[in-house]
Amino acid sequence: MSEGPPSDPISCPRSATVMWINWTGVACMIAAACILRQIPAVPDLAATLIVAAAFALPLIGLEAVLLRGRRAPEHPGDAVPGGPGLIGHTVDYSQEGIDWHGPAAPSFSRFAVKLIGLWTTLAIIALIYTIVPEYSATLFDPFWSMLEIAIPAFLLVSPAYFWWADGRMRQPYDGYWHVGALILGWSNDAGLSKIRQHALGWTVKAFFLPLMFAYFHGNIINFRGANFSELDAMGWHYFFYNLLILVDLGCIVVGYALTVRLFDNHIRSTEPTWSGWLPAIICYQPFWGLMGPQYFAYRTDMDWGTLLEAYPALQVVFSVIILGLMGIYTWASVSFGLRFSNLTHRGVITNGPYRFSKHPAYLSKNLSWWFEALPFIAPFVFGFRGMGWSGHWTAAAGNTLRLLAVNLIYYVRARTEERHLSHDPLYVRYALWMERHGIMAWAQRLARFVRYRPPQGRVDARREDVDSGT
């Protein structure tokens, strides 16, 4: 008897990472941080680098042994190159990265052009850091101190790595080569769309890495200095809250710092549009510092801890909910392993909380803000305390609308990320599977504006299969 057609024609593709490997790195990260709490003689900068390395090194080793070649397509449709679209040139995602099986074939001339492209890129970034006053702030002092250690090592290792990678890349004429070709005056050979993608990828790293490293360094200092004997119930809440943020930042810093084909976590493509960049960078300093207090200030001095101070049991409930939501948020970052980065595509993640939602970090973070800020509660608190009901409704309405505006920013971020990642047929298959199996599938059936929008003309047949359930 022959088997009938499968009940679900689209399966969830495998993830670019393996969760147990990622959790191994997290366990080593936390263990290193705990050990360094007991060794105050270790400088804070050294402690920060050790904790980051404790996360990165186990992942690098385990992935090198277990996941080599994981980008080989598991489904015939995954090998179809993404069309030019917004990126500007065709990207064959099945041919990205290193060829581990073919013979090495480096070219000295190609290698030299790539080095010219590398040093040109770094010189431009150094110039930007020098002339932008924001980077002279004391916040970034740990980042500059880190570079004093990292730059000599980079100067030593990068030529050897570029020579090794050039001989093993499936597509050796990368962005570095095209930048070098442009500097050498080979305008007919330099591809402007590839130079643009190269510049955008480095802009992401140059913008986010200093900020995230500074935050990570600060969290390491706070973790090492925490005095457990002085913590009350709320103190323990914020300790675990900050521990979750520390793990999140550790994953983020490693993701931005290590972007190399050797680890298969290189950038496949970068968001090419202003409509994708603006809602992302507005959420970070210095832009949030300029706009947040003026237009999106939904918090007041009366957060959930203050408002519920007279109700300890309810305070515990809110603490558990908030920590649970932030746990999901951190879990989402851990799912990326070595591949975390805003505005870029570095491999499709389908495990961890991404097995249930395309945007678990955004959902959990935005929900946690509602529980933390309680922007609508002030009139009720003042009213039931006998302090009057009038005069508070306008403030509550304003705070609620401002938090809804922040939620809208993250909704736009989610939609533009989907648009960018849909350049990869593998992500299209994942998104269509999630449309049917994700925890938000009910919302997509009820409201078309939240439904996934795949590229037209490439997955219409699959979409019809999903709709019909055949």
What this model shows, in words?
With 470 residues, this protein is mainly α. The chain has one domain. Helices cover 60% and strands 1% of the residues. It has 17 helices and two strands. The chain has helices at residues 19-37, 44-66, 108-131, 141-166, 175-183, 192-225, 233-257, 274-281, 287-295, 304-307, 312-335, 360-373, 378-384, 393-421, 425-437, 441-446, 460-468, and strands at residues 269-270, 344-345. A two-stranded antiparallel ribbon has the order 1-2. Helix 1 crosses helix 6. The longest helix is centred in the middle third of the chain and has 34 residues, at 192-225. It starts with 18 loop residues before the first helix and ends with a helix. The model is unreliable at 1-6, 76-82 and 460-470 (pLDDT under 50).
Order of helices and strands: HHHHHHHEHHHHEHHHHHH
Molecular shape: globular
Count the beta strands. Answer: 2
User: Order of strands across the widest beta sheet?
Assistant: 1-2
Structural class: mainly alpha
* Cα Rg: 24 Å
Indicate the percent of residues in helices: 55-70%
Task: State the assembly state of the protein chains.
Answer: single chain
User: First CA to last CA: what distance?
Assistant: 19 Å
User: How many structural domains in the coordinates?
Assistant: 1
Strand content is: under 5%
Secondary structure elements and pairings:
Blueprint: H1 19-37, H2 44-66, H3 108-131, H4 141-166, H5 175-183, H6 192-225, H7 233-257, E1 269-270, H8 274-281, H9 287-295, H10 304-307, H11 312-335, E2 344-345, H12 360-373, H13 378-384, H14 393-421, H15 425-437, H16 441-446, H17 460-468
Helix pairs in contact: 1-2, 1-6, 2-6, 2-7, 3-4, 3-5, 4-6, 5-6, 6-7, 7-11, 8-14, 11-12, 12-14
